[in-house]
Write a structure and sequence with these properties.
Elements lengths: L4 E2 L1 H8 L3 H10 L6 E3 L3 E5 H10 L11
Antiparallel strand pairs: 1-3, 2-3
Helix pairs in contact: 1-2
Length: about 70
């Protein structure tokens, strides 16, 4: 199984958010799964990004997803 890993910049572009959004997410408890490679490298799997996108689907603005 080969999985493409995206760095923070590429993952942010994929989700159309800022790098800071992903950095804050990791700091606050990581709703979006990431892979830590070595001591500093952070990568995201495209499958995890797609799963996060799907988990955020709502039917109305009042839908909290619970």
């Amino acid at each position: 199984m080969q999985t493409e890993l995206l760095d923070t910049k590429a993952a942010a572009k994929y989700l159309n958010v800022s790098k800071a959004f992903l950095e804050r997410d990791r700091w606050a408890g990581a709703r979006i799964p990431f892979v830590k490679i070595g001591a500093r490298a952070v990568r995201y799997r495209a499958d995890d990004l797609n799963a996060y996108i799907n988990s955020q689907l709502r039917q109305s603005t009042s839908d909290t997803g619970d």
